[in-house]
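Summary for the funding panel

The consortium committed to producing paired sequence-structure records for every protein in the target list. Below we show the first two records in order, beginning with the earlier of the two.
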Amino acid sequence: MTTKTLVFLLFAALTFSLTSAWAGNRAPDAAHGKTLHAKNCVSCHDNSQYTRPNRIIHTFGDLRARVEFCDTASKANFSSDNLDDVVEYLNADFYKFEK
């Protein structure tokens, strides 16, 4: 393999890995979501909201939409990653929806 080919392949691999990181291939962090939830969400409601029999959340999409709604209503201004983290926490601890 020539030096130029090797340099090109290394550059291509580095570019691909950085692009993947920038593209949002980050795994949601439920522990961080729990912290955000405790700081921003419990001022309006406690965890019984998620376990009541007549809850309004029935799918993972519903959950994401509701967290986005609450983010706007509370003016928490979560980043996309923070929204993902809160949704991950709620789903892992309460809802258990398939993604």
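The next record, for a separate protein in the list, is shown here:
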Amino acid sequence: MLSWTLTFLIIAIIAAFLGFGGIAAGAASIAKVLFFVFLALFIFSVLFGRRRV
């Protein structure tokens, strides 16, 4: 999931550099959402992934 975030971030940077503002804003917002989903899943797995029975 983090790789998808980096992919959309790179797309946003390239689009902004080339002057495509709408595409850059869309890709940046998708990257932000994916990053927060990744962060929430990571914290969830750290907290509940190592429980011993």
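Regarding this second record: The radius of gyration is 15 Å. Residues 2-48 form one domain.
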